[in-house]
Structure formats: structure tokens, C-alpha cells
Amino acid sequence: MPTFDNLELRYTSKMNKPCPQWLRSALRLLFGCLTCFIAVALPFLPSLAGLIGGIALPLTLAYPCFMWIVMKKPGRYSRSWCLNWILGVSGMVLSVLVVTAAIWIIVTKGIGVHFFKP
């Protein structure tokens, strides 16, 4: 997973030696415990999941299409240029719709905030 790879990379670059197995296990256990603590401490995060996902959705749907156009520079109005523009714009429209729906759900249902009461 990228999170563990990043932690191990930081250790390796700082200590100039490979990460031992016991430290890898300890880092993964610590990360799991931290994630569990955040999930219990902030039980309202699932209500915000749609909003967070909608904000991050263009990175998955639109960004690759537009970056492909910038990097490959296909002929203007060619089949691949049009397809990537259609997919990129569709991804942006879908992202706006998801964010709008998430805000609508948050406004209508509200967010029940009860810390440490999952």
C-alpha cells in the first residue's frame, strides 16, 4: 500500500538502511490503530464520504483524460481528442453532480456529531 511504502521510504532514506520486519509490523499496527481511533472518535465521517469522494472524483475521471491530451497532443478534433474531451467533461459533470447530491443529503439529513459514540 502506498501509505506503508511511504513510511518505509522515509525510514530508509533517513536511516540509510533497510526497514526491519519488526518495524514494518509495528508501523502497520500503529497505522491500523490510528485509523480505528479516528473512526471511533469521528463517527460523522461516513456522512461526509460522498462529499469527499465527489471532490476527489476528478482526479480519477477527468485528470487522466486532460493530461493525455496535453502530453500526447493528438490532432485537434480527431477521434481520440474528441473522446478524451467527452470523457473528461463527463467526469467533471459527474463530479459536480456527486458534490451537489452530497451537499443536498448533508443539508436534508444533517450530520449527527457524537464524539466517541459510534
UniProtKB/TrEMBL annotation:
Q: Does the keyword Transport apply?
A: yes
GO molecular function term, any single one: symporter activity
Position of the signal peptide: none
Q: Which residues form the Amino acid transporter transmembrane domain?
A: 12-106
In its keyword annotation, does this UniProt entry include Kinase?
no
Primary location = membrane
Give the bilayer topology. Answer: Multi-pass membrane protein
Annotated TM spans: 25-45, 51-70, 82-107
Supply the Pfam families for this chain: Aa_trans
Q: Which GO terms describe its biological process?
A: amino acid transport; auxin-activated signaling pathway
Question: What residue ranges carry the coiled-coil annotation?
Answer: none
Q: Where in the cell is it found?
A: Endomembrane system
Q: Which GO terms describe its cellular component?
A: endomembrane system
Q: Which keywords appear in this protein's UniProt record, sorted alphabetically?
A: Amino-acid transport, Auxin signaling pathway, Membrane, Symport, Transmembrane, Transmembrane helix, Transport
Purpose? Carrier protein involved in proton-driven auxin influx. Mediates the formation of auxin gradient from developing leaves (site of auxin biosynthesis) to tips by contributing to the loading of auxin in vascular tissues and facilitating acropetal (base to tip) auxin transport within inner tissues of the root apex, and basipetal (tip to base) auxin transport within outer tissues of the root apex. May be involved in lateral roots and nodules formation.
The record's comment on protein family reads:
Belongs to the amino acid/polyamine transporter 2 family. Amino acid/auxin permease (AAAP) (TC 2.A.18.1) subfamily.
PANTHER family the record matches: OS05G0424000 PROTEIN-RELATED
> Protein name, please?
Amino acid transporter transmembrane domain-containing protein
Q: Which species does this protein come from?
A: Linum tenue
